[in-house]
Give the backbone structure.
Amino acid sequence: MSQRDRMRRLIGFTCLTAARIEALPGISRDHNIIMPRVTELHVNGVARRVNASPDRSLLCVLRDDLDLTGAKYGCGEGQCGACTVLLEGDAVRSCITPLSRAAGKHITTIEGLEQDGRLHPLQEAMLETGAMQCGYCTPGMIMSGVSLLAKSANPNDAEIVHGMQGNICRCGTYPRIVAAVRMAALRQKTAGRTA
Amino acid sequence: MTLTRRDFLSTLGGGVVVLCVVEAADAQESGRRTRGGDAHPPEISAWLHIGEDGIVTVFTGKVEVGQNIRTSLSQAVAEELRTPVAGIRMVMGDTDLTPYDMGTFGSRTTPTMAPQLRKAAAAAREALIDLAASKWGVDRKAVQVADGRIVAAGRSAGLGGLTGGTQLVHKIGADVTLAPAAEWKIAGHSVAKVNGRDMVTGKHRFPSDVKRDGMLHGKVLRPVAFGAKLANLDDAAAKQIPGVTVVREGEFAGVAAPDAATSERALAALKAEWKTEEGQPSDSQLFAYLKANAEAAEDRQAQGSIEQGMADADRKLSGTYTVAYIAHTPLEPRAAVAEWNADKLTVWTGTQRPFGVREELAAAFGIPQERVHVLMPDMGSGYGGKHSGECAIEAARLAKAAGKPVKLVWTRQEEFTWGYVRPAGVIEIASGVKNDGRMTAWEFHNYNSGPSGSQITYDIPHHRIQFHPSKSPLRQGSYRGLAATANHFARENHMDEIAQALHLDPVEFRLKNLKDERQRAVLAAAAEKFGWGKQKPAAGHGFGVAIGFEKGSYLAACAEVAVEGSKPKIVRVVESFECGAVVNPDHLRNQVEGAIIMAIGGALFEQIRFENGRMLNPRLSQYRVPRFADVPVIETVLVDRKDLPSAGAGETPIVGLAPAVANAIFQATGKRPRSLPMAV
């Protein structure tokens, strides 16, 4: 096993994405990728100044540099969905998304869903169905659900399960989350609001 | 330094203060510590304050980890103070602000903390009534407290409106009477999670979200295997990275840097040589190892003589059952932010035992406990997996060396590898039964997994239940329901086997051996809802039932399982649950549903694999936990016993699923699963 593999296996990383691990000092000197630093991100409708290496994870930059801590670290390998944000409306796992992929695109985080004091229908539905216990998976669940509803305005339960399969709720509130997505779909249809 | 009660009270403003004084039975749990370090008089276990602004603030050392006690305790106080839940603020798990508490585990909050807070609230209400009667010159019987106001004969005031800058202090006595559950107006109802809005907007700051000025990000160098010793560390390359602090103290090595990416680079630049300990046990030899290293047994429950019971039996059965190590896998891994100010240490961390972590920190740094402040923001759950303070200590070491606050968030791999796991175990059962289904003998031995939930509610004249501690190859610890899942899996699986051997209906067979009315009631409730005995399972499907009792709660579960090929799929689960008077029906249902879903993982596929001191599956891509598609139809039946005290309910609903599913698999396939997980 190479030192790099050993490191990934034993420790994992919270901030550096795979591309950067290749280029870690003392591990491999062949992969030093020279890319310009990212200086601006479009987050929740606002241009935000940053000064970050393009191989850092989007999650890390959102949380540490922009103090948008709604997206959570859960696994660092795109398996749990706690870090889910929208990139041009599509749900992505920000923990494995290098910043370079997000630069120049519209990023939406959980903090950007509420508009003029009004919660998104899915946020409301999560509250009404009591679809949480500890709440740590909740922002990622909501972002995955918002993306799902944008693609399929009236999903049935099987489609919701399929669309949300990449998000883990360790407290086991899945049936309530399915009910919340269904409720939000109905509300959106009635209100004519799109996600 | 322990504050006197007078010092302590002088720190509060005007208003009403009610102190909960420790009762002997609860002395181990909250308040009355033996060692120093308390910021409050030691006899106080919780207290509440009604400010002149009418805001009710409740102080308890219990913590919120997703079980929703922030809400249920608010309801308890709101009920007795006759004030809306929204007017109550809970200060929880802060070692400087709240009284000592041993920790949030064992389903203890509802049976022990809630009644104390209810008494405090009731005492506060009575004090306000006295005050109003005297200030307004009216009979106290004419004074009412309703909707957060004190009202009498056309006059009215807010809860904090009558104290006029003075401080009224009450110690609750034994004579405080509480509203009976049948009359509850706020408790007993489905109040929504009090900080739910902060959860859906991402505003809530979990421990891993805490940020301090000038904060650095830490990483810890982990050994290549359990027991490995750091033989040599070359930190030259890491030290060359600007802004990096490298810390080496004995076996501990770590780094801190201004941002997480730099700390990760610095960690990767450390060149470590390890002296490993080879020949450690692996999962393939686990159960033999646990048996071979068993210590002297402790009797947990015993009656009569097993020999006599076996002599009385027409049929004798025996069975061996095993359960694997599993990981709690809280979605938020261990996290801590540590900050030193002069000689005082402050740590924000996710833990079920803030006071225990304070003790660990004080010991690690050789400082008195009053110089350590631990704060526990509502965290991304624990399930019994966050009792210890290792992450807090690591963050504090790095912060001390760097001279700046340091945040340390364990990666998922670290959480899997360096936390602790639910104990694995071997269970052996021998039983004797009459041909008519009356049990005569029950001998039960649990090796390593633990004694919880091994007691029987069946009436078996001759029984002996023993727990044999053993040497665990992996670091093991608490878990939701502890060993009750393992012990229920073995017991209810074995009971099913007896019923099948005698060609008796599994529900009828259980009822034949049960006198406990509460246990019978939950079984009847689940069987009825499931439609037990009304229909036969479809081809390839099976039905199974199991009952249970632990930590003051009773349950019964019925499951339908479909087996395609060798893979069982849980189709439907009905679980009845009785924990005395229900405090919040919706949150109780949420706990029962969630526990059933969490139980699916341990029942079917969760298993820690290890070999020679190394974890083999310490990632979520390698360790499967239940997801949306694993969820069956779940129906819960809450048996609300308003005549009984409320018991905790965060743990026990987890124990019924595995045996019910095992018994359903047997009916579907004719093969009896005797090991957890069952589908690997």
About this structure: Chain B has three domains: 5-200, 208-276+334-409, 284-325+421-676.
